[in-house]
Amino acid sequence: MPTVFVSTELANLIEPILLRHRARPDRLVQILREVQEVADFISDETAAWLAERLRISYAQVKSTRDFYAFFYRENRGRYRILFSDNITDRMAGNQALFEHMLKRLRLEPGKVSDDGLVSVDYTSCTGMCDQGPAILVNNRTITRMTPRRVDEICDLVRGKVPLSQWPAEFFVVEDNIHRADMLLGTPHEPGKAVHAAIARGRDGMLGEMKLSNLRGRGGAGFTTAVKWDACRNANGDTRYIVCNADEGEPGTFKDRVLLQSYAGRVFEGMAIAAYVVGASQGFLYLRGEYLYLLPQLEAYLAGMRSAGLLGRSIGGVAGFDFDIEIHLGAGAYVCGEETALIESLEGKAGRPRVRPPFPVTSGYMGQPTVVNNVETLSKVTEIAIHGGAWYEAIGTKQSTGTKILSVSGDCERPGLYEYAFGVRIAQVLEDCGAQEAIAVQISGASGVCLSEREFGRRIAFEDVPTAGSFMIFGKQRDMFEVARNFSHFFAHESCGFCTPCRVGTSLLKNIMDKIADGRGTQYEMNELLRLQQVLKPGSHCGLGQTAGNAVADTVQKFRPAYERRLAETDFVPAFDLDAALARARELTGRDDAAAHLGEEA
Amino acid sequence: MNAPLTPRKLRVATASLSGCFGCHMSFLDIDERLLELAALVDFDRSPITDIKHCSQRCDVALVEGGVCNAENVHVLRELRANSKMVVALGACAVNGGLPAQRNHLDVGQCLQQVYRTPDGSTAIPNDPELPLLLDKVYPINEIVRVDYFLPGCPPSGDTIWKFMTDLLTGRTPRIEHPLLKFD
Questions:
Q1: Chain A partners within 8 Å of B108 (Cβ)
Q2: Source organism's superkingdom (chain A) (predicted)?
Q3: Across the interface, do A588 and B112 touch by the CB < 8 Å criterion?
């Protein structure tokens, strides 16, 4: 391939980025993110030039760039505005605001303005469900959108005011903690947990972890001590601790609050994990939507380094060397899956790996790696301080400790609620002021939809497991539209690696749209459930396996919401057959009876 | 009460829409088993019988080919209206197949290219006898309800035989390896 040139101006912007990352190809995702930040988009020429400089193939750069929703091949404007499109944003009226902004800026959805200044589009849930509708402007979060705020933003964009000079109140993200228990309600003493762990010793701390029976808070509920033990005993040269902060599940925002106001616990939890398994390097994989947290998290890490809580010989223990680096995601829900996350950390497209081998034996760079959720790691600090037995006494037998719920939707007080495991759904609804709920979607789009008659069930691995999302739907809500929103989400987020998921999620979406269009029949109802039977056992990772859950649940529990949309015939095509002949009619100049197709006789 | 069921002969219709007749050829490829089949089924509308329209209600319609023009739509609708079961026979019926290669092109441009005369002008025929092309080639399940799908280009004679004998004996048709192996 001939040497590629980019403009000197652009090269001058990119060179420092390459230098900072030592032109390492495994940093490609981070490099692309920073290049886009300075260049607004990553053209084919830029990609080819990067490939040369990183000494990798153009195809590698291109495949990574094209995988992530927040990397753009073409100019999307100096202001790239994305409306969060979770169902909770919809319920808060994001579509009207979206239309309003398009009208004010005279734009088409997803198309950049003629002067190359601005584009407006939708994106998946941005984790601001308690203070939506939310938008991202160049990946910076703006919450609580109103028609007035839309107008103000349009004026700022037209006036070409730099984002850094926009009113600070736009960017305020509140914690909204409404029920605090042992994690959210206890003051944090920096270093206490790390020193407590050191006092217990490596084996002692692992022993306490085992006693505590702490289970992963990311959704799957794997026992943390087992994971650590396996990583510690695995063969490898280097061990890694990864904190999964790719909180992409629609309706979840607990990790956002933990990282915003409880970051010390998360990082100390990582340090303790490193101490136990013998890791020297940690990564926080922060979802791209939480870019606004980056400066304060970097500052916090710097503070920990100067306090001797990160770096060499932590707590005076020779050989306890550990540091943490933050990597940002770029708008890919599937990167919440641990092996996809590791691929992304290695600079590649975030496609889930084949498991086994599991990350504990072959993770980041093929080395033993622990991947834990943000909440799980912050729980570790409590166990270090108070011991496993104390921890084990809280909650239920198989679900020890507390769980933070991200409550959103139709209630008076959306926000975070921390409960000991075992709390009933009805209790949560009462506490957050949800009087007329007809349904709660637990654990996000991939979770389970509970109807009123199930509100007596409990949040626990034994009954209703959850990663934390708790979306409430009042009696005015249409549960078909809820499931349709989720079906669009999965079709958009499928990584395309395996056919059941890539094709299945799109078919699911198309059928939901067909039903919404009044063209569905009983046949489509059967197809929905048949597809679920293909998606669930046939998909490669959790995304596809759970993508049909919301549809299957709502078909079962809110069937009339579907049935009232069905056509009363055997079958209706999804499109207008007569219109499909229009082009041929035009070219032949025919308009006779045979040149038309009516409804079926 | 325990007397064996004497199965009624199944009435079968077949048609080739936008296909190459390869699936019908494959059907004939069940060879001498055709005689066995003839004892169990009657053929109604089909290229095999040359019956032009369904003469009565059928049990099974085997449809080869995708839907590329208005006539295909009429044929498919007639088969659907007159059959208990509609079977998508082969790749084109299942997902559009080879003819659907034109789907990423504008049908107008296709016509202009195909009917270009040596002097560079175009003469697209407008005879009402000729069915008009649809904008795209559709799999048959986007036009009517379809009960069974038999993939393959074409499905082998053995596959078709397995499917028909399953139907005749009342088993849920199952096509498994090696009948589903195509390379």
A1: 583-584, 586-587
A2: Bacteria
A3: no
